[in-house]
Write a structure and sequence with these properties.
This protein has 3 domains: 98 residues, Rossmann fold (3-Layer(aba) Sandwich); 201 residues, Mur-like, catalytic domain (UDP-N-acetylmuramoyl-L-alanine:D-glutamate ligase); 143 residues, Protein-Tyrosine Phosphatase, Chain A (Alpha-Beta Complex), CATH 3.90.190.20. It is built from 15 helices and 23 strands. The strands form 5 sheets. The protein has a 7-stranded mixed sheet with strand order 8-7-9-6-12-13-14, with helices on both faces. It has a 6-stranded mixed sheet with strand order 18-19-23-20-21-22, sandwiched between helices. Strand 15 and strand 16 form a beta hairpin. Helix 5 crosses helix 8 and helix 6 packs across helix 7.
């Protein structure tokens, strides 16, 4: 089969392309931003990439067009279509489908699907669960919205019967406004947490809860729903009806953790079943671990084995990934973009730095410089701007890249006083951060995009202040 993917360079569609190629299909694709690293990864797989969405791509004559949710109906100011290829496909009556639908029919059918859903932590938890199953010898397939360092790739078919997938609640396609995850039909599902997000497609939290319940409806009676016991929103979802086995995690759940965030024991119904010692920080990662262990147990992995696996888990790229250290200043890259994710990321680092200071009396307390851009559609709309000061409370200084926002970042961060600075350009942002940085600092760059390469630019300037 020859499939042509519209919007191929997104993390989900790029992973789908890799799976289709591994399965022996001919794969081509197009996008408005064909650029590294995804473009390099896909070309290395022998996938032809085309810049733009021109109607001339009909000449490729694929068996089916797989349409990403980046594509929509509409016109430019001059009256021309925004996506000429899609309009041509519709006019010609050619076969097309969505990415999640194609994946469900050609990859997931007949496999035991383990889906990881939630507002935060999906990518990391999917990486953890995949690694646990692989460590246990199950050789799972997977599709992750990032690159787990243990594997070095974001997707593979796997030789086992299990498939682990990051289950996104974002809509499927312009012709299918259901959440992506309703296509996956999991037998094991993790509901990590649930907050309001994606303000561009959901009116309120209740609308997202409705989609989560659609997911719950697809899980068989022999399946398992692993859910965060601390989330009131998830309790509301399950109260609408749940016909599968339940397993809760968290302080009041079936699965609990006791000890420090980086060295803890796993408890199941109060009995110790494993120990984890790792380099990850934050209570949120401890919760992610509990969810992954509970889900892995459903497919036969002993919790003690799962805990051993997590001690060798190397996280996912762009999740507090250290990009470099110069003159005692450490620069991190993190995907956090929702206020809660920003808060948990900084809280985890603060706890780690405070523990280090206690262990070495007399050592200065490490400062956190939070550098972020409100880049997601929800943040661009200003829906959560009031939560930003709270999200940054663990930072000693905060720097916001506000270029292109439709709301006043100075006003939103005003309550932070001198702790917060706002820049309209990457150049101005660099100047502000470099003027404030000093040895011992930890600079955390947070964005769900490339952030203008700010990480490398900071490191270059720290190495050579005279560099252009």
């Amino acid at each position: 089969m020859h499939i042509h993917i519209l919007g191929i360079c997104g993390s989900f569609m790029g992973g789908l392309a890799a799976l289709a190629r591994e399965a022996g299909h001919r794969v081509t694709g197009c996008d408005a931003g064909v650029y590294p690293p995804m473009s390099d990864q896909l070309r290395a797989l022998g996938i032809e990439l085309i810049e733009g969405f021109g109607a001339e791509q009909l000449a490729l004559k694929p068996d089916i067009f797989v349409v990403g949710n980046v594509v929509f109906r509409g016109q430019r100011e001059d009256g021309s279509p925004r996506f000429p290829l899609m309009e041509a496909v519709l006019d010609a009556g050619l076969p097309y489908t969505s990415g999640p639908q194609w994946l469900a029919e050609h990859v997931l059918q007949g496999r035991h699907v383990l889906a990881v859903a939630g507002t935060h932590g999906k990518t990391t938890t999917t990486g953890m669960l995949t690694w646990i199953l692989d460590y246990a010898g199950l050789n799972p397939g997977f599709l992750v919205g990032g690159v787990p360092v243990n594997f070095g790739v974001s997707a593979r078919l796997g030789a086992g019967r299990h498939f682990v997938i990051e289950a996104d609640e974002y809509d499927t396609a312009f012709f299918d406004k259901r959440s992506k995850f309703v296509h996956y039909r999991p037998r094991t599902a993790i509901l990590n947490n649930l907050e309001f997000d994606h303000a561009d497609i959901f009116d309120d939290l209740a609308a997202i809860e409705r989609q989560f319940h659609h997911l719950v409806r697809t899980i068989p009676a022999s399946g398992r729903v692993v859910y965060n016991a601390t989330e009131v929103s998830l309790k509301r979802v399950l109260a609408k009806g749940c016909w599968s086995e339940r397993a809760s995690f968290g302080p009041s759940g079936d699965w609990q953790a006791t000890g420090a965030h980086d060295q803890f024991s796993v408890l199941h119904h109060g009995a110790a079943v494993g120990d984890v010692s790792w380099d990850l920080s934050g209570v949120h990662n401890q919760m992610n671990a509990l969810a992954a262990i509970a889900a892995a147990q459903h497919v036969g992995v002993d919790p003690a084995v799962a805990a051993q696996a997590l001690q060798q888990f190397l996280n996912v790229k762009r999740r507090m990934e250290i990009r470099g250290s110069v003159a005692g200043i450490t620069v991190y890259d993190d995907f956090a973009h929702h206020p809660t994710a920003i808060h948990t990321t900084l809280d985890g680092l603060r706890r780690r730095l405070d523990a280090a200071a206690l262990a070495q009396p007399g050592k200065p307390r490490g400062r956190i410089l939070a550098v972020f851009e409100p880049r997601s559609n929800t943040m661009k709309l200003g829906t959560m701007k009031a939560q930003l000061p709270w999200s940054l409370e663990d930072a000693d200084l905060a720097f916001c890249h506000a270029g292109g926002l439709g709301w006043n970042a100075h006003e939103a961060l005003g309550v932070m006083g001198a702790k917060a600075q706002v820049a309209d350009s990457i150049e101005q942002l660099l100047h502000q951060v470099l003027a404030a940085a000093r040895p011992g600092d930890h600079i955390v760059c947070m964005s769900n995009g490339g952030f203008g390469g700010v990480h490398a630019k900071l490191l270059d300037k720290l190495r050579d202040p005279a560099a252009p």
